[in-house]
């Protein structure tokens, strides 16, 4: 069964090294929390708020060990007034036997504000 796994993270500034590091960190945490192997991933869609333009977050995923051939696409989020700035969101489509309610969606840094109901331990996720 294919399931969607959501994740989001914020960066301190729109700097290429921050965007790439934090995107990689988020994707690896999503994979760890849901026992996902790269071969289980059908595709990944990454969106950023419009204030992030210094780097393609997909590059971070493609450079992770064993993730080279996972299809990844980037896009921008809607520019809604008052939305969380400097935010990277990931939708990972994975083959899994986990039930929908067993999926662990991952929110890191200030992105815990997006879905506090899905964050198990806010203090542990805010680094």
From TrEMBL:
<dbReference type="Pfam" id="PF07736">
    <property type="entry name" value="CM_1"/>
</dbReference>
<protein>
    <recommendedName>
        <fullName>chorismate mutase</fullName>
        <ecNumber>5.4.99.5</ecNumber>
    </recommendedName>
</protein>
<dbReference type="InterPro" id="IPR035959">
    <property type="entry name" value="RutC-like_sf"/>
</dbReference>
<dbReference type="InterPro" id="IPR008243">
    <property type="entry name" value="Chorismate_mutase_AroH"/>
</dbReference>
<keyword id="KW-0028">Amino-acid biosynthesis</keyword>
<dbReference type="GO" id="GO:0004106">
    <property type="term" value="F:chorismate mutase activity"/>
</dbReference>
<keyword id="KW-0413">Isomerase</keyword>
<keyword id="KW-0057">Aromatic amino acid biosynthesis</keyword>
């Amino acid at each position: 069964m294919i399931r969607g796994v959501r994740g989001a993270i914020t960066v301190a500034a729109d700097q290429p090294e921050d965007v790439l590091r934090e995107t990689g960190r988020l994707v690896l945490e999503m994979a760890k929390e849901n026992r996902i192997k790269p071969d289980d991933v059908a595709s990944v869609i990454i969106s950023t708020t419009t204030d992030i333009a210094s780097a393609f977050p997909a590059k971070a995923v493609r450079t992770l060990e064993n993730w080279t051939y996972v299809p990844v696409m980037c896009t921008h989020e809607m520019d809604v007034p008052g939305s969380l700035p400097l935010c990277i969101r990931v939708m990972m489509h994975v083959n899994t036997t986990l039930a929908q309610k067993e999926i662990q969606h991952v929110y890191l840094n200030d992105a815990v504000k997006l879905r506090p109901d899905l964050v198990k331990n806010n203090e542990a996720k805010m680094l």
